[in-house]
From TrEMBL, chains A, B, C, D:
Keywords recorded for this protein, A-Z: Amino-acid biosynthesis, Arginine biosynthesis, Cytoplasm, NADP, Oxidoreductase
Short name of any one Pfam family annotated for the protein: Semialdhyde_dh
Active site (record annotation): C144
Natural source organism: Methanobrevibacter arboriphilus JCM 13429 = DSM 1125
Name listed for the protein in its UniProt record: N-acetyl-gamma-glutamyl-phosphate reductase
Length: 360, 360, 360, 360
């Protein structure tokens, strides 16, 4: 049995880790830490985990003795404990933003704090970094918006098809965490739509970092809060550099398209794009490319680790729309963390996270 | 492998059967029938079942050759096919109301139609009829409201503690099924509460049938529609026949209380009631009795087969409140149907249905 | 122009007073006080009041010089300022619970605090106390649950038709006020139903006080939180003392029914009940009795001062169901406060509060 | 008294016209037509209009004898009756799409039907066409998305500041009308986000028509359905042609900026943009430009005729975000229709439509 510890288990991502790990055949939850709820049964805080014997503990970092340690701690807190956790010999999967940036100054600029313990980590998006994750001791689990946005746009950047991407995301309220504030007060956010951090959300540079690896694409990101509990619906708008005529096969030699004349044949381009995405993700168990004419529904992935991508349409102005949906707490957080654990431990990658979404 | 057929798989209960059975290690889905969607891939109708190869088929009843047949058909339709399905040699679990009533005239009165094929069936509530279900060829899966209401009140009736029970239920909208109507139109039922069939809902006599087996208790039932997708929250109000003094132990000799003087000691009575419930359900995996002071949350059972019961309080007028929550599509329909299948087939009763709820 | 001051204007009831009073032709808002938001424009806190020049002020109680003073302050706070406010010569309409109880010990028991300034006040439910309100200097504006529950049951108590009433109320979340807490956090209360203070809500004794004036009826009250922004849906269950035979006319001599044999004729009784309610409220502009067969919709009164009452049904057990709906912030708070002001000032009672609800 | 007729009064826009006109001091509703509900009291279909004596009538078009006729009929239906209605001598305000397009072929392409009675109409957006509306006999009331999108982008087009605009709109479900379908079924669209007609919504060319009047701007439009009853939240993304250095005053000579070098000073540009908007709408009663740092809330305009515009931010890529919010049934339909009527009849423009929104 692989022993795991969840550091900071009283929030939503902690709750999801517990819910999912309880069904994992190769794993035993050894500790769930919480300073605030020390000695409290887990089901008093997570009342859906009824019947479990788990109890929160307040234990010192250096006393944690587990194979895998999930740090479901806020950004700024993780960097204070991760080095010590690694010294215990366990491998760490950090769900905060503290280790996601390869350029430490980007982190410090956008998070507004000094990083006290920078170190190398693997960015935990298996669809890009699976091989690196296998060997990693420290995985930085991606942010929720970045997971949906990167998956939706990776083929566009890798094949140099667009120069600018406008990412208009709509998130459920659980993305804001378990702590209350005026924005997340039910009478405020029910029957409402709210844009926030319109140009200043720190998931913007995280998306930029990953998509900018392959081309000079510039990412513009704006998140919205919608009256949904879980899920991120990401609408990506971008203008195709070149619309392709029928003699070009996008799926084969896509880089060559850069200097081709604008085409009249939008339908062909659309099919090429769809095929490009299907090719990119054909071996990915958790990324589903929908057929032409289908648009993803947020509620199709509720509670699941799947990402659905679809809605590929190109309008008369050459704008391409690509839409992705994920559950922010699963593929956007705890499910992906378990996916990373499965890869790191050599388990079947889908173990404990392959349930379909709860719909309706 | 046990082969199963789902007759009428395009609705919500059909979708839930598919979702849950896909993870069942002992079962293979052989057919999912639908006249309307013949030859359509299942994921076109249930877009969360993305990646499955299942396809709807329109097959004749007598061609169905399966060990277990779930009839997720409307009331009035089931009775036309169940006899023929039983003749194929398969065992039938009927999710409609057609076989739930032991007195056929009650069915005909409340459903307003003549029953064309009355026959003996076992009422599929495992917490009462587990032994009968083991041997049954035809199980009538309970209604959603009755499941929550009977579990919440069974100890009261079996121990003759109350004469009248007022059941004020609040249901999510998925209980109305996948077909549209003006009531379930989003702009109508969002941000709204609606009472319907205030004294005339046909789940009333179904509750009465089961609770009335043990005493002369009279059930008064009123359902409400609340802006929730899934779940039934049942508030039961009843006046205790006798409030117990401290010399009486409710958990031991409860029938004897009938002629005891009203007590001053409401707290003792409350504790006795809680203990009575804990004793009643102590071997039930899917019924959780909450501790004193805890009230069930509907969202703790979302997507799960669990029933939580709690909220035991007695006010100065001697009114007892008992609250139960279930997911109407799982414990109230498809999950319970699979629980019945597990019992009928000798599988572990919890197989494929023991996931915790999705919260938040 | 009548000058008014709103003490404590930053919460929901303050916002509603401002919204409604801005359209009142006879009234000028002189002050809106707030300690926290001193000198802040009102539209920074109430962003729907866009374009208004109003600004919050932090002014001493004794400096308030207005004809009418609304105290939209929490219970426990009002009693500290009301005596001084009355000394300024203004009339006070208090929206807290501090002056609603005729028996001060009931207040102190249920609110858990000592009352520092008990004094006579008129209970501000115009449908009962209109004549007293006309002459009052201090009006205690009723609670939101009591407004809906008393209107729904007043004829039953006044005519001695029932001994016990079970009031099962479903409230929108704005009833909890503008301050955040874990219960009202969107991810917790969306898609959920929660019962709270199952037998211990302090609106229970307030309902009991008013309905108990006319008979020995005993009130049992349980509130529920539903995912609705505004509105209280009250389901009242009671067993009719006597079901009437056709020789009795409920609308004429209802007290005489007390000793009549149970009747078979439920339909006649139902009609009698409906007529009784229509008679009771026939001169009330804000109480609408629905026709036989109609049930109130919560969304029909959203944003309005109306109460709709309907759903009159009697089941085979003799249980009568009566349903009322109000907007908790309007008829249940600020709208009713303005209705009281209109009565106290001799304005037309409906001025500024006769808009229909916003539906859908 | 001005007499008005509402043709097709049983839908949501009909209901809003009734709700608002009931408080109009200069207007009497003479007829509300409905073929389906002939002789039915209005409050049976619009239960919030409780207490009114209005009754639906099925009357022939040529029998309508009113000063103002609102046609709240579906597109395709209006063009069959408007010519005859104009012959009665009444002025017509058409809420359908039938008369919104100056180029009839655009209408026929996007609506997919032949126009049987093309004629000149004034596009009823008072913020552009007030003078023309004063003299019009036929006003084409704008679509809901176009109202929000045009108001949010008019200054950008008129001052030639951008070449492309991406309009990502989020609408409440009432925009889909009162008729049911699978998409608007509560269990489907609650807790969900849905993109639809991603590049093919017919409000796209309507927005293009109006914004394209002043520059060569190209509009790309994608609507989303969010779980909100009322309201349209429009996020406009566009890349500024030139970011201005501090020597240029956007509010004075904005056309001259076209050939200016990109600037470093984003803050100045932002302030210029805000001032430009404030100048544009300074005499408009129903358009409120929010201060720097404020973003519009959808729920601030619920039930009101106001449009709030704000959120002006420019990111490092030169992308400008502008956000507008309206209530789709009021400023986006019936409220704007009454605003047009007020202008046509010489009433104060704000009569009967100047209530603040219902918040929370």
């Amino acid at each position: 049995m692989t022993e795991v510890t969840i550091v900071g288990g009283s929030g939503y991502t902690g709750g999801e880790l517990i819910r999912l790990l309880q069904k994992h055949p190769n794993v035993e939850i050894k500790n769930i830490t919480s300073r605030q709820y020390d000695k409290t049964p887990v089901n008093k805080i997570h009342p859906h985990i009824q019947g479990s014997e788990l109890v929160f503990k307040d234990i010192n970092t250096d006393k944690i003795d587990s194979d895998i340690i999930f740090t479901a701690t806020p950004h700024g807190a993780s960097m204070n404990i991760v080095p010590e956790l690694l010294e215990t010999g366990g491998k760490v999967i950090d769900l905060s933003g503290d280790y996601r940036f390869r350029d430490i100054s980007t982190y410090e600029k956008w998070y507004g704090i000094e990083h006290v313990s920078p170190m190398d980590a693997v960015y935990g998006l298996p669809e890009i970094y699976r091989e690196e994750i296998k060997k990693a001791d420290l995985v930085a689990n991606p942010g929720c918006f970045p997971t949906g946005a990167i998956l939706a746009n990776l083929p566009l950047s890798q094949n140099n098809l667009v120069d600018n991407i406008i990412i208009d995301s709509k998130t459920g309220v659980s993305g804001g965490g378990v702590n209350t504030n005026q924005v997340f007060h039910y009478p405020n956010c029910a029957d409402n739509v709210i844009a926030y951090k319109i140009i200043s959300h720190r998931h913007g540079p995280e998306i930029q970092q990953e998509l900018g690896e392959y081309s000079n694409v510039k990412v513009s990101f704006t998140p919205h809060l919608v009256p949904v509990i879980r899920g991120i619906f990401t609408t990506s708008h971008s203008f195709l550099n070149n619309l392709v005529d029928e003699n070009i096969d996008y799926t084969k030699d896509i880089d060559a398209t850069k200097n081709i004349d604008y085409s009249k044949n939008i339908d062909d381009a659309k099919n090429d794009i769809i095929n490009l995405y299907k090719k990119q993700y054909k071996n990915e168990q958790f990324v589903k490319i929908l057929d032409d004419g289908e648009t993803p529904n947020l509620n199709s992935v509720r509670g699941s680790n799947f990402a659905h991508i679809g809605g590929f349409e190109i309008d008369e102005n050459g704008r391409l729309v690509v839409i992705s949906v994920i559950d922010n707490l699963v593929k956007g957080a705890s499910g992906q963390a378990i996916q990373n654990m499965n890869i790191m431990c050599g388990f079947k990658e889908k173990t404990a996270i392959d349930s379909y979404g709860i719909r309706p």
